[in-house]
Amino acid sequence: MTDTLTILGLESSCDDTAAAVVRHTVGEPAQILSNVVFGQCDLHAAFGGIVPEIAARAHAEKLDIVVEQALTQAKLALTEMNAIAVTAGPGLIGGVLSGVMCAKGLATGSGLPLLGINHLAGHALTPRLSDNVEYPYLMLLVSGGHCQFLIVKGVEDFTRLGGTIDDAPGEAFDKVARMLGLPQPGGPSVETEATKGDPARFRFPRPLLNRPGCDMSFSGLKTAVLRERNRLVEQHGGLREQDRADLCAGFQAAVVDVFAEKTRRAMAEYLSLSPETPSFALAGGVAANQAIRAGLETVLNEFNAQIFAPPLALCTDNAAMIAWTGIERFRAGRFDDLTLAARPRWPLDKSSPAMLGSGKKGAKA
Ligand code: KG4
Ligand code: ZN
């Protein structure tokens, strides 16, 4: 087996069309030679959510372009790749299909092997791309579309300890921002507003803390904020500045508490595997939240675990994580052929699939 692998990755499962080239030599850190992302935010802005048909068409139009850019920036030709890796699910099916068809065309034209990658595996293996974290590690994936605790044991070996049973936390941040008249994406605006507020003024629920396990719920918490907002608006004829800040601080404090306690439980399960160097990795857009990070750090210090947070550009949707997962799959000798199917759902842990339906960004597992 070649010591050095260079793989082209494609990603189109949600609202980002992305292509990247990653190179890895055994025993050395991985090199991201290019990482091109074309975001579709503007195309969907007027609709208040992602429109799957618009997303699929934009992916089909942009894929060739991002592939060309990724190869140009890497200063490599397609023929210099060892394989093509593509997200084959889970996600919005039109976008996933666009990517899979594009990758099949490239593989057929060039004679290169094809690797169909699970998008969630891409997120889950990112700490190995960025920090070479050893298996097994505990991972918390929190974004606008995902929320789950995973023990990552190998390229295709995941144990899902729990996750949201309704909204993803990013979705909850976005909805709270919308109801309080704050700009999107809601996460950063709610976080900024929360710094001016009193987290103790409103005691919002900490859903599912009274139940064992690592499952979480954010929908009821969001509704509790809405109810309080409506009460304040009725009382004062509008939302006062301090009320808005206090609502944000109260909401964020509840999310911090939920993550801290569920992480404590997930950590206890992970440590029962007796990992040599206990490691915890955080990924997804919500991982940018400083209050959440601080809460998690406190918990992880209790366990003497090392915390890894890959740079944001690798935590949000991108194709470098797909190329990297392709490299790991290539080394494991796990290739696909032209029968590769696009899958709207594809749980990482078949024994413990997510319990929820489709979110605003497509299926969550
Ligand atoms: O991983 P990501 O970029 O995209 C997908 O989910 O596809 O995550 C985006 C989500 C949005 O819902 C956004 O509001 C949230 O991450 N987010 C945050 C923060 N920054 C981004 N949530 C809380 N605090 C933040 N600072
Ligand atoms: Zn994602």
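^ KG4 complex. The mean pLDDT is 92. The chain is about 45% helix and 20% strand.
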